[in-house]
Amino acid sequence: MNNLIDEYLNFLAVEKGASHNTVEAYSRDLIRYVDYLSGRGIHTAASINPEDVVSFLGRIQKDGLNPISVNRGLAAIRGFHKYLLREKITDQNPVANIGLAKVWMRLPDTVNQEEMNRLLAQPGIKTPRAVRDTAMLELMYATGIRVSELISLTTNSINWQVGYLIAMGKGAKERIIPVGQSAYDWLYKYIHEARPDFLKKQSTDILFLNRSGNGFTRQGFWKVVKNYAMRSGLQKKIHPHTFRHSFASHLLEGGADLRSVQVMLGHADISTTQIYTHITRERLKAIHKKYHPRG
After folding, report:
1. Which residues are known catalytic residues?
2. Which DSSP letter does residue 15 get?
3. Rounded distance, CA 81 to CA 85, Å?
């Protein structure tokens, strides 16, 4: 069945335009699935039945996987069996009537506006590196883009005349996001004053460059965020996605409509964006409790 997994993953990447991270995650889930089935003496896709799938899900839950990870595994298995049906490799779908594991709502980590200002102030302006890092953090907060989108930006991704950027999201889908004046000014400063120091006489259109003159990796940007989070002294877990979460929650707190935030975040389903309305409600409850005389 490993060959079938390879064919399905290729289908996801080429025909469905799935991101590299999605393909990698599905690959791990499906390999675990097939290994489990092999241990039960099941070596062909046609011989898999619903009980086998349920047994596998029970096994990974016992192994300590949380409901979100279990559901991702189930999504991978469901997609795999739909593909097998489509290609007429099997004539039944053993996952058809298996539901998702219950997932309790987990609110994303955010910071308030004052805390965000503290974070953004950490790099400073004294060196090319400081200007670059400030530009990156400002842009993350101004647009809510993902880390993978940030490190994929090129010098052509920014429309300087209109003040927006074009981000390449999941499934190779483009979206347009306003940049905002503060991030725009820092980007302009970085492009004209700092980026030439990182180019090192090379020629590349990658927007944000590391000290070697190459583009950032996800891990490289995570180190940047971790450094400034420690320096800020904030008693919260700060990670790259904190900027995206805070972008969305601050927009909604300021009165933005949910549909507009959905478009800027690049969510395919508005229900994904709705989690941020819970953040706003929780913040209002906290304010009420703190300041109301009978809170």
Report:
1. 146, 170, 241, 244, 267, 276
2. T
3. 6
- For the chain, residues with pLDDT lower than 50 are 104
Residue 62 pLDDT:
82
Q: How far apart are CA 254 and CA 219, in angstroms?
A: 32
The CATH fold assigned to 113-291 is hpI Integrase; Chain A (1.10.443)
The predicted structure's pLDDT at residue 227: 94
Residue type, 19: S
Residue of 129, 280, 149 lying closest to 193 (CA atoms): 129
Distance (Å, whole) CA 134 – CA 138: 6
Say what the pLDDT of residue 115 is.
94
Give the pLDDT of residue 121: 95
- Provide the residue count of the chain: 295
Round to whole Å and give the CA distance between 123 and 107: 28
Angle formed at CA 226 by CA 222 and CA 232, multiple of 5 degrees: 145
Within the chain, all domains assigned CATH 1.10.150.130 are found at 2-86
Choices 1.10.10.10, 1.10.340.30, 1.10.150.130, 3.60.70.12: CATH for 2-86: 1.10.150.130
